[in-house]
Amino acid sequence: MYSENIEKKTKVKIYFVLLFFVISFGAVWKRIYNIQILQHGKFLNLANRQYYRTLSPMPERGIIYDREGRELAVSVEADSIYANPLEIEDTYKAANIISQMLKVDSSRLIREFNKERGFTWIKRKVTPDEAEAVESLNLKGIGFLKEGKRFYPKKELAGRMLGFVGIDNHGLSGVEYYYDEQLMISPDRIVIEKDALGRGINFADDYEKSSEKGYDLRLTIDEVIQYIAEKELAEQVSRYKARGGTVIVMNPYTGELLAMADQPQFNPNSFSQYKERDWRNRGVTDSFEPGSTFKLILTAAAIEEKIANQDDIFFCENGEYEVAGRVIHEAKNHRYKWLTLKEVVGKSSNIGVIKVAERLGIKNFYDYILKFGIGSKTNINLPGESAGKVRDIKNWSGVSLASISFGQEVSVTPIQLVSAVSAIANGGILMKPYVTKAVEKNGMIVNEFKPEVVRRVISEKTSRELTEILEYAVRYGTGQKAMLEGYDVAGKTGTAQKASQDKKGYSMDKFISSFIGYVPSKNPRVVILVIIDEPDGIAWGGEVAAPVFREIARQSLRYLKVPALNRS
Fold it and tell me: Active-site residue 270, yes or no?
């Protein structure tokens, strides 16, 4: 009996031990299965991170073309220089020699070369001369990698609109920034092996090297018209010792920008030599009080609402008119009595447009300002666009209707103004402006951009009547220096006082001179806006800006092969 009890207890113990081993091995196998099967990828990645380091040399960005396929931005291969500090024999000597050749800080190189690591960048995307000079040293531990470097072969041409890229090849401004994801693909991967202490020792044999490059862009900009615009603008800014200037050339029927120029010029190949505030594309980022060019918005509204036509007569008060306690004068101290609406616009009478605005009314005027897109972004495919400024109607003062009628108390961007006048030129339709025609891959269109209607603003009849008024303004009014032999021109001058530095009133000696017009007036191929910022001496838009319009129009129409009128 006693022996039976002992035998039972022994069996129980054996079963418990067996169960313990079964459970233990089950737990071990479960853990092994979890690590080797379920989480294989995770632990492999951790292992690779311990034994490998990944670098990402920058691949080629896509090419940016003008509308005719001419290259405006390309990628070229450049050498980037790196070091393996573990292989450098004399870190101080190497750092001092290389720093002199590459014009980099020697103290930084000494710090990097003395670290227990197997890889560090010395200088990326060096010039061929710099690469050749360093290579000639035959220093142990110094190596070279090829990376894509952005290059702008036309230098300043359309510089601010194109923008530029940083050292990592990502766009930082302009088209380069706006379309960065399309132009830039995933970077190449180069793998470096690390030793047991985590130090890089050499490149792995099977590193990945991409042969792909980003998508290409085809812009609406025409290189020839862009060159014409930049040349003529630069000459006039220099002639009048102006602070700067802007020109925009647009196809009024499609909203395509054919040129966007500004002064002073900007070379994206050397963007770091400019102050950051000088990187911006003023055609979309900066707003200004438009002065008399804004009279077009008022006149269009008045004709559309049938409260005036071009032959209606307005009394212009002999040059002085009091509004809400403020006496308003004509420019150049003119003393007009009775003027037709055509003459009010042609002679740019401030008092005349006030009389038109009073007849139109605050609400109607405000509604048309918004309909023409003033006070809201055009949503052009460029970064940094400003909306300008139009105060809510409830915040208008007793003098606001008068002031806004001739372009004060309101600010517009150049792209807003050229888009608004394009609506007058094309028969009354506001078009969305754009600068990109297509995204392409290997010459095939991936995404094409089409003209986009925003809304109808005025009727075709109003457009025709206003065009006749603007033709008069060029033939007989303030815009005579915009006249172009062989073509009818429609346009309007602007001379706007700039706000004083204390923001209390207007400067007496700082002006923005402008002219905006379209040609041929009956079937326009181009709308051209010219802005000259703070010309020295003469400031009238008809004297300073209109001649620039004429020269850009003359050369552009010849280039576009637009036939002149036969007036015989």
Answer: no
